[in-house]
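WARN no homologs supplied; continuing
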Amino acid sequence: MQIALGRLLPSARNLIREDFLEFLATLARDLPDWWVCEQCVKLHRSRKFDNSKRIADSRCSRTPRSNSYYWMNSESRLCHQHVQLALKYARMDNRKWAYQKYLDAVLAPRHMTTGAKTPGLKYRASYYPKIVKGRFLILGVLRFEKNKNVVSADTIRHMTICMHQYFCVSDLILLERLQALNPQPPLNPTLALSTAIGAGLKNEGVEARGFCPQCPTDFSFRATPNRAALCFWQDLGPEGSPLNLTWRVHVDNTSSADNPIIVCHKEPGSIRSLYESGFGKRV
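OK structure emitted
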């Protein structure tokens, strides 16, 4: 390791930061115990307990607390190294027991139950990671059940599934006004989720499908007065640099609303199909 780096690093150090991170990511592909740190612009050795389950220990000591990550619940989130190490170990044949254990930990389902988000309803959020054809995918399922109140737009209140799609009740009012002017108004890229939720609430028990035009996210919504489920499928990308846009588009909370990261979703339904084509945790 040290000899190889000693030969390669002098010339690679002349690269700009983005290219040097790509260089390190390529190097790390064949180093099972190492991952690329965006903050240090170095390779760090992996730690067995750093597998997305323990927030306090998962970041490099030089990485600020506001660093981007994929949030799943109050105790679990995915940083870039978790995704990259899992992709690397899934690719390996005859992997060590320690690598298998790490992989299982990263791909374990995550759940969160709370009533604070939706007063009057029971709410449960579940996340199911999966690796399919060298890509790290996530299925998220947000479930709402009647408690004191029935399921409706007013009791669901608001939801978000990516950096570009946010539902709130006022969106349905806006959509009704647009449809009154034009029965088939042009698709507003930021109202795709609200359009699907509105259709699902209107057509009881019928699945309404949609996608985010600005990131690789597919989703569906189905509702009755007693229960509703919002499912979304996201592609967090393949092995690569921390600057890979397929990763950044899901986690970068530093981009402004006026200048968000956008990765066009050119094939609606393709993320869901890819996720459902994979059996078990890994393919």
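The chain has a mean pLDDT of 84.
OK
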